Amino acid sequence: MLGETDTHWPTLQALLANAKTSGPAVHDARIAALCLQDGVREPWSADRDFRRHFGLKVVCTRSARKPESESAWHNSCLNS
Question: Model-level pTM greater than 0.70?
Answer without folding.
Answer: no
